[in-house]
Every structure is written in C-alpha cells, then in structure tokens.
Amino acid sequence: MEKQADTEHIDRILEPWKEVIGPDFKGYRNHVVRMATFCLMLQPCSPQDQRKIEIAACFHDIGIWTDNTLDYLPPSVIPARRYLDEHGLAEWAREISEMILEHHRIREIRNGVSPLVELFRKGDLVDFSRGMVKFGLSRKAVNDVMQRFPNAGFHRMLVRRAGKWVVRHPLNPLPMMKW
Predict the structure, then answer these.
(1) Domain segments of the chain: what residues?
(2) Higher pLDDT, 7 or 2
(3) Which residues are registered as beta bridge partners of 178?
C-alpha cells in the first residue's frame, strides 16, 4: 500500500466520540481512515496538509450522530472548529470547515480556499462509491485499502439512515448533496 493515513492520530481524535457514535464507531473510524488514505494516495501531501486531511476526515460526517440527522454538514463543522480551537489550530478553521461543507459536492471544486478541498471531496467519493469512482487509483490499490480497513457496516448504516430520512423528508431526500 502507498501512503496511509496516520491511524494513531485519527484514533486520538475519534476516541472521545466513541460513545456518541456507538455501534457505528468501527465502521465510521474505518471510513475516516480509508478516505484520508485515498486523499494521500491521490496526491502527495506535506505533513501539515496530511494532518488537516485527518482532522477534517474525523469530523466530516460526525453530525450524523451528534445531531441525529442526514443534514449533517453544518453540524459536523461545529465540533471540528471546537477541536481546532482547543488544539491551537484555529487558523485552519476556514479550510477544514470548507473541506467538510463541500465534500459531497457533485461537481469539481475549482475555487476552494485551498486545493485540499477538492482532494478531500475526491477521497471521500472513492470510499463512498466503494471504488467505483477511483480518480486514477488502481483497482488493486483501492481494494487493498478496503481490505485493510473493512467497511464494518458503514454503508449499510448510511442506507438505513437514508431510508428513515426519506420517509420523514420526501421533498429533501439527500440534504447533504450539493451541485
């Protein structure tokens, strides 16, 4: 496997959220590691940019659990910003917030506050699509990451939550998606 996300860093960030995420924790943790790893495989990053990707990855979907909603992008920014403030990284808040808020944009992001915004979108899409969208990564590389960090029910949980959401919000079935 090529460059891999720092699982120790990710685990330190996610540990306080274990109880909030509950039985979905392993699936979410592995999704975070996979998507951050895909970002690093798609484009070499400085240690600082890798750290930004890992922080954003830890928080990018967390609003699913903190606010019990499928409209989770804005609620996911709040704990990310709190984490950045607590760790003396407030100057990264705009960039990491945009990474989180734009990671479900369907179209390429050409004018983000940094190139990491588009890279983050791509890394998440590789994982969300389970490698159907690869952005040039080899099938073997994608499969290696997915085998090393198993799905653990993550996609099944998303489908289950989406089904419940659609019943309650039929006119807004995928609120996290953006054009």
Answers:
(1) 7-168
(2) 7
(3) 105
